[in-house]
Amino acid sequence: MTVSSPAPRLLVRSLPSAREVDAFCVQYAPRAPGHPAVRDLLRLLSEVPDDGLDARLAWVERWMHWMRERIPAQGLMDGEDATLSAANSRLSLLVRVLEGEAPLRLAVTKLVSGVCAGSRGLKLFAQVGLSGGNGFFSELTDRFVRGVLPPPPEPGKLSELLLRLFPVPEDAEWLAALSPALLARLTVLVGDPPPPDPSPTARVRGDLLDALLLLGVQVTGLGLAEDVRDRTPELAFRASPFLRLRMVCDAVLARDGAPDSLRDLEQTEADCRRVVASVTRHLEHSGVSVDLVYRLERIRRGLDRMEAIARVLGAARGEPRWREALELLSDLLRHAHADRSVRALVQRNARLLARKIIERTGNTGEHYITSTPGEFHRMVHSAAGGGLLTAFTAALKFFLVGLSLAPFFAGLFAALNYAGSFVVMQLLGFTLATKQPSMTASTLAAAIEEDAVENDDPDDATDGRMERLAALVPRITRSQLAAALGNLGCVLPVAVALALGFQLIRGHALLSVAQAEHVVESLHPWHSATLLWAAFTGVLLWMSSVAAGWFENFVVYRRLPEALAHHGVLRTLLGERNARRVADALMRHAAGVGGSVTLGVLLVVAPGIGGFFGLPLDVRHVTLSFGSLAFAGCTLGPAAVMEPGFLAALLGVGVIGVLNFGVSFALALGLALRARDVPLREGLRFVGAMGLRFLRHPAPFLIPP
């Protein structure tokens, strides 16, 4: 819309008079001349600084505050797009004003040129959001210090300017929602200053090319590290795509981002990703270290950043380039805030640690899960042997309690009792109930990862994960039921036989009446804290599975079986064949023995540590508790077994089993989801779906088809 008398042109850097303000508002907001967005914009554009980087950056902050105002610049002229957001409506107003006001446009162009000339974007594009290799505690201390002490100003770095302009993490969504078309029009107006002022477009493009080269050097160094090369023996060093990556980046820089050089870069990045995938697959056989997991994560992040920069460089000028640039900037902003967040650091390291724990599936998951009726029955028989040994373990526990031992030796012998029993179970091929659910994190993670790789569509990947986990969870639950049936079905008669035999030989019961009554009271589900201790024991079971996976990985990563098989002294003493058998036994039982020893120690040490700090911690394992209750019943007699208190304790044993299983399995599932970056809401949705499926069709969760 035009008016009959044009407004007088404004003089830059002089405060406009009231007449000039009114004329300006009538020209650019004829339908709403009193709109505050128009008046504030005139005041802002009239105060563009001539020079000085600090003054110019302060003006850019003021402009961003004006853009962030929630009042939209709508209804100012006829024919406006009423669907624009508040930010885009103000951006549209700015573009219209600069198109019509040459002096203002020239001042803003000079300011943009000065800001870009005085700032560097290498750190922003090549370092923000990418780990610098610092240790966890070093980085944690640094972030705490930066949170308490004000950081020194660095006006020459775009990484600091980005955080000044967008001080909260939620600004990333606001930035991503800006219109690429309007930003392209704004770039045409203020992005090409007259000589001799430097071109902002050339400056930013140069920073992007420098960042691409720097990232190429870093990723090349990470990809050519020894532990990565050792896990890709089929690939010759000279044929490594990481070695080619540096040369391709040099070509991109030399040819100023020519399309064919960017296509070569894209192909080389894809080859590097295939090497990373191959290394990940080799972790199954060669083990994994924390350093290697961190290195693979840094390679993935570096390749992602290089790909995003290449998309910006290869996009056509105007709206397509701004669309890619906004995606890159919003991602950089998210990572810039994450780089200053202690919480983000803890979450990222927890995820990497989870990935390290379950990256190698090894022997710790699949053989604890049954599929067929034959496997189900073999699990019951294996668990029956575990129940037999547990009865002896419970009897020895009460015998040790009756000895007058110093606290250290009492704890030592109790830990040896538990750990020795669990190790013998492992070596004899027996099974302890509630132990196997916590050992299945690697198998769960493998099911999640398979669908994440096979499906490009996130929705399809989510559905695939749901289907695979929905098929896997019933196998785990019915395997646990088989183990519980075998344990409890055997521990009861063996414990009764031991108690009667002891009474026949010694003339008195294994437990005193006071001890038996204490056992019954301690297992009462609502008169004691037994449910809390059962859940706590589930945590200990999960921790033992983590230790089992760690020890098996340590054995494989350090190649201990090969070392033992070729050890000169061992071969001399046992012979070559027996030395090989020892090595094979170590490989076969590493996870089981490591987890068994850890569980036995934790069951004793955890309550001791709690008592040291005044916390009355205790443990409740379903098989040990049932064995203890059987000994108590033999002492109290048949009449006491039918008393309400004893029946409640029997119910408590059942609930202990459910909590042992539920907590350890939930932690294993959470570890798998965390390691594979599955959102929390998706995990909760899966749990709800599984609960609903169990209520509708419980049979597959209890018995094999």
UniProtKB/TrEMBL annotation:
Keyword list, A-Z: Membrane, Transmembrane, Transmembrane helix
Classification via InterPro entries: Site-sp_rcmbase (IPR011385)
Coiled-coil zones: none
Superkingdom assignment: Bacteria
Transmembrane segments: 415-433, 481-505, 531-551, 590-615, 646-673
Keyword Ribosomal protein: no
Record flagged with keyword Cell membrane: no
Protein name: Gliding motility protein
